Amino acid sequence: MSSVFGKPRAGGGQQSAPLEVNLAILGRRGAGKSEDTYSTEETVDQQPVHLRVMDTADLDTPRNCERYLNWAHAFLVVYSVDSRQSFEGSSSYLELLALHAKETQRNYPALLLGNKLDMAQYSNSRNLDGKQQA
Ligand SMILES: Nc1nc2c(ncn2[C@@H]2O[C@H](COP(=O)(O)OP(=O)(O)OP(=O)(O)O)[C@@H](O)[C@H]2O)c(=O)[nH]1
């Protein structure tokens, strides 16, 4: 038995069928989580991987989390670099993932990603709705 992202998969040695990897994208609304591709075939370390992506639709805080916590093998927490509100909102997702790891006794890969790099010059100055902060 070998494993990918901490969850066991059947078989070992040469793999012909792709690994199945589920990735949940978390973060406050407006961070830029949505992507056009939700399922893709990739090759990682000469191993075919079938990657499924779930774009979660929480508003400002984690909600109804069980559906993605139980589904995902890995997590991407996204914030928008031009919004302090968005960055600070990431902490509730990171805390949720830390709690999940503690409860399940597993360490799932989790990455904090700053999006909208093209907006970095406006850092700290906007709310997620695009309005200037006081
Ligand atoms: N400038 C800039 N805008 C971006 C970028 N990525 C996404 N956006 C814009 O940010 C806005 C929000 O993007 P979404 O992908 O809808 O954000 P979301 O986090 O999925 O938000 P919800 O769907 O409300 O959960 C949209 O207008 C996007 O076009 C980026 O890299 N740069």
From TrEMBL:
Q: What is its EC number?
A: 3.6.5.2
Which reaction equation describes what this protein catalyses?
GTP + H2O = GDP + phosphate + H(+)
Write one Gene Ontology MF term.
Answer: G protein activity
| Membrane spanning stretches | none
Q: Which UniProt keywords are given for this protein, alphabetically ordered?
A: GTP-binding, Hydrolase, Nucleotide-binding
InterPro entries named in the record: P-loop_NTPase, Ras-related_GTPase, Small_GTPase
A Pfam family of the record is Ras
The reply to whether GTP-binding figures as a keyword in the UniProt entry is yes
Q: Which family does it belong to?
A: Belongs to the small GTPase superfamily. Ras family.
Q: What is this protein called?
A: small monomeric GTPase
Q: Which organism is it from?
A: Myotis myotis (Greater mouse-eared bat)
